Amino acid sequence: MYQSKIAGLGSYVPENVVTNDDLSEIMDTNDAWIQERTGIKERRHIEKGDGNTTAVMGVKAAKIALERAEISKDDVDLIVFATLSPDYYFPGCGVQVQEMMDIHTCPALDVRNQCSGFIYAISVADQFIKTGMYKNILVIGSENHSGGLDFTDRGRSVSVIFGDGAGAAVLTRSNHIGQGILSTHLHSEGKHAKELSLEGPSTLHWVPEIIAENPQGDDIPYYPYMNGQFVFKNAIQRFSEVIMEGLKANGLEVKDIDMLIPHQANLRISQFIQQKLKLGDDKVYNNIQKYGNTTAASIPIALTEAWEEGKVKDGDIVVLAAFGSGFTWASAIIEW
Ligand code: UT7
Question: Is 115 a catalytic residue?
């Protein structure tokens, strides 16, 4: 039995900064509301002509992660790509990354678990390393939200929250048992699938059908729907549960946490968990203020920045936790 560890991290966000004031110029919203309800000050949006796509941003983050891991692209055994905003309906972004980075014919798979996507992807990679099947796995979370949001007043409760960006981690076989990913914990509850969803275009809502049924263009299910308060309530419950589940599985307690990296859904959710667990400010990392909610990219971007700032150090117990559409939720307990 082997163990995996994170050998390198990287992130990339588009240059184009969109402030709350910028959004208030195109829809009925304001900086005070967005900051008070979400903590977000600004986010990044892909700009027409900047060349970025979900896969392209993923490649930019992945190159940094591989360089830091000192692992050649030729030694990548598997690519796992988490996104809810792939470049194509099919194939997935994993194969695009493989082609763009000129990686040999290694397997590539996409994970579709939205805000929990990166932890699910880490878990998949971890299992392949544990069994000894693969040694080096490139795990990417990337999202292009801005291309698919409703920036009219109708979509304001969703579109002010989400931002674009990518993060990546290289998982490799650890030489020291006890160091690396200690465990991952995954859950889902499909009965709430519609509470945070984008129904079409899909096999239930093909484009010609949608247009035929909605000649005026009203109620087209092209934009994400979120039952905000219901999602919020479930999030704070499940975040706490899955963190405690992970700690317990490893004989750890809350006081053992050196750094909690929560999925950046809403600063109020992170603060609620922090208070509930009675964690100090130096034990929870948030950067939603700068990037908004970048779904599958939020944890790898935050983890990369925390590591770059020296806030994640050798020997630390690092906890990743996420909740989102599905509903899905997950945690990973790592000894750095
Ligand atoms: O990452 C995946 C998981 N996602 C989450 O965990 C998100 C969970 N939910 C949330 O973060 C919050 O529910 C939101 C930030 C989405 C919304 O905050 P809220 O405190 O639940 O606000 P609300 O939806 O109850 O809306 C309150 C008011 C409404 O007006 P009335 O009916 O009170 O007059 C909304 O129309 O705020 C209004 N509103 C806005 N006002 C200005 C909604 N969106 C906006 C906006 N700007 N962008």
Answer: yes
